[in-house]
Write a structure and sequence with these properties.
This protein is an all-alpha fold. The chain is 34% helix and 0% strand. Helix 3 crosses helix 4.
């Protein structure tokens, strides 16, 4: 492993990866342009991919950022690029924006969604490296981290040509093994709801400690007061789920976007790295 990637792995293990956090000040408003959205409960209007949102300002900042929910754009409040926006803007395209160089716009908008998936993978691998119990797979995780990071630094053409699904297929077994090792410390039988359809389920007060909820559909589920300590929530759909009074201490692979999409209150116990959403 190169010295650069050794430093990367050390940074990941300590949880210090600011480059995996959105930095809108160094992004060219890519999520407001590259991605499409349809008029719905999440978005007030239709917008095609590559079309700038009408609220995007000349400085690439959102003109209604503080009022997104009030204006019908709650979908924007739960989106996280995991730092892909600034990587595409400042690294892939060297700080030249799509307005000054309109000939680069199409390529930039095609790269962004792929980069976002790569950065999401980097985020999960980074979290797995921070799990002491997952030490048996840390070596493989460090290799995966270095490889994915290298891919994010390639040319626009190489990035858009990636088979991200195949890459996920290689990385997911490592994340699953890390999850299993971390959850093995939980006493008793651990529930397996991987990929389960739990839309609207009544799970108030449920004992889900150490459970696998990977990819579970928990839309509008009642998880009030549930014990979700050390549960694996990677990819779980928590839109409008009630987390009031739930305990999420040590929840694995839980993201800020998932919390932002859910409902909670002052009694919800969160992992220290995540913030209580303002709308709770």
């Amino acid at each position: 492993m190169s010295p650069q990637h050794e430093a990367l792995a050390t940074s990941a293990a300590s949880g210090d990866r600011k480059d995996l956090q959105a930095d809108c000040a160094n992004c060219f408003g890519l999520c407001c342009v590259a991605l499409p959205f349809a008029r719905s409960a999440d978005f007030a209007v239709d917008k095609a991919a590559g079309q700038p949102c009408s609220h995007l300002r000349a400085d690439f900042r959102c003109g209604i950022h503080e009022r997104l929910r009030d204006k019908g754009y709650s979908g924007c409040t739960v989106f996280d690029c995991f730092g892909a926006g600034q990587k595409v803007s400042q690294v892939t395209f060297g700080g030249t924006d799509w307005r000054r160089a309109p000939e680069s716009a199409r390529s930039m908008f095609e790269v962004f969604p792929v980069m976002r998936q790569l950065h999401e993978l980097l985020h999960y691998v980074t979290e797995a490296l921070g799990l002491a119990a997952a030490r048996p797979v840390h070596k493989e995780l460090r290799r995966a981290l270095a490889r994915i990071d290298g891919l994010t630094r390639g040319s626009a053409e190489s990035i858009t040509g990636l088979d991200v699904n195949a890459l996920r297929g290689e990385v997911n077994p490592l994340l699953l093994r890390a999850s299993e090792l971390a959850r093995a410390r939980v006493p008793g039988r651990r529930k397996n709801h991987r990929g389960a359809d739990l839309i609207g389920a009544r799970l108030s007060g449920a004992d889900l400690r150490g459970a696998s909820l990977r990819g579970a559909l928990l839309v509008a589920a009642d998880l009030g007061g549930a014990d979700l300590r050390d549960a694996d929530l990677i990819g779980a759909d928590l839109r409008d789920a009630d987390l009031g009074g739930a305990d999420l201490t040590g929840a694995l692979f839980l993201t800020q976007a998932q919390l932002d999409a859910a409902r909670g209150d002052a009694t919800t116990v969160l992992p220290p790295a995540l913030s209580r959403p303002a709308h709770w």
